[in-house]
Write a structure and sequence with these properties.
209 residues; Four Helix Bundle (Hemerythrin (Met), subunit A); 9 helices
């Protein structure tokens, strides 16, 4: 099962970036690491954007995700990919995940069920970290883990679509249902990845803490 990143849609998306955006950005003189920093800076603005209007929060997620896509693409095209670069990018992505989800949570800050919203946000954040940790831990043990619905690209795409719906649908229903769907999909991804890794490691390895 391919992820969104390796699907036809994902490949088409990266081809468009490479053919139409990469060269102008290279001419500006930006480096992959600078794009990474721009991406996280835009992520920090997401909560502030949501406080002004959900459409602005959506815009900041889109531009932050775009910068995150371009940094890796530029590194590969310039043959500047490195182990540290991948490590830095993955680390920064977790910071961005926090600010993305915080933006949605702030939309419910003044809601009477603020505690419930906080618990949902914490659950979503924990599961997001689990998705990434399971993959990182599996790969450190030599197992492949390119499976699951909610990989990084799919999560960002989901958040953009969710923010757009919130911007066009009055009330808080879209916020609540968006959190619930995100959590369900994230749980499914964590379970899928654990089962996938178990099938690879159980015959010859025992998991240790």
């Amino acid at each position: 099962m391919s992820t969104l990143r390796t699907s036809y849609i994902g490949n088409t998306y990266y081809k468009i970036l490479q053919n139409h955006l990469l060269l102008p950005i290279q001419r500006i003189g930006l480096t992959p690491d600078q794009l990474t920093m721009i991406g996280v800076a835009l992520a920090v603005l997401v909560p502030f954007g949501f406080m002004l209007h959900p459409a602005l929060g959506c815009l900041f997620i889109m531009t932050s995700g775009l910068a995150d896509s371009l940094d890796g693409l530029m590194a590969r095209c310039q043959q500047r990919s490195s182990t540290f670069g991948a490590f830095l990018d993955s680390t920064i992505d977790r910071v961005s995940d926090f600010f993305y989800l915080s933006g949605f949570w702030l939309l419910l800050w003044s809601h009477p069920q603020r505690l419930s919203a906080t618990l949902l946000m914490l659950a979503a954040l924990l599961l997001t970290l689990m998705i990434s940790y399971v993959k990182a831990r599996a790969e450190s043990l030599g197992a492949a883990c390119q499976v699951g619905l909610m990989d990084r690209a799919a999560r960002v795409a989901y958040l953009i679509a969710w923010a757009f719906l919130i911007a066009v649908i009055p009330g808080t229903f879209a916020i609540w249902i968006g959190f619930l769907i995100y959590i369900i999909l994230a749980v499914a991804t964590v379970v899928h990845r654990i089962i996938h890794v178990r099938q690879q490691l159980l015959p010859s390895h025992r998991s240790t803490l």
